[in-house]
Amino acid sequence: MSRNRQSITDTELAVLKALWDSGSLTARAIAEMLYGTCSESELGTVHSLLQRLERKKLVLRDRSSHAHVFSAAVDRSQVAGQELEAMAKKLADGSMAPFITHLVQANQLKKEEIDEIRRMLDDAARKLRQKRKTR
Fold this sequence. Notes:
Blueprint: H1 10-22, E1 25-26, H2 27-35, H3 40-55, E2 59-62, E3 69-72, H4 76-92, H5 97-105, H6 111-133
Antiparallel strand pairs: 1-3, 2-3
Helix pairs in contact: 2-3
């Protein structure tokens, strides 16, 4: 995903979630997942969403068969990261600290997540110390 923020609507996100959960799908399969049915208007809506996602380079299209098959061009963590960065800019002048503080104080993190965050913070601190030494 490019560093330039591309807004993703809730309906586009629903299509991406279907692709992340199931891998490659046809437009008809996506419509059935989202709506439970696949009327012509629902299929048309899904086609429009896929075209928009393809223009945003968030979805890939395989045209090798009659029914085109779509897959996500980005993973869930890339989209989550961009959405979180946008929220941080909007609410906290770009700072992630209020979000992390909230998760810790609200006991929203599992032990494995805490351990992983601790490893990442230790690594970031180590890199920062090394960077300061080379100045």
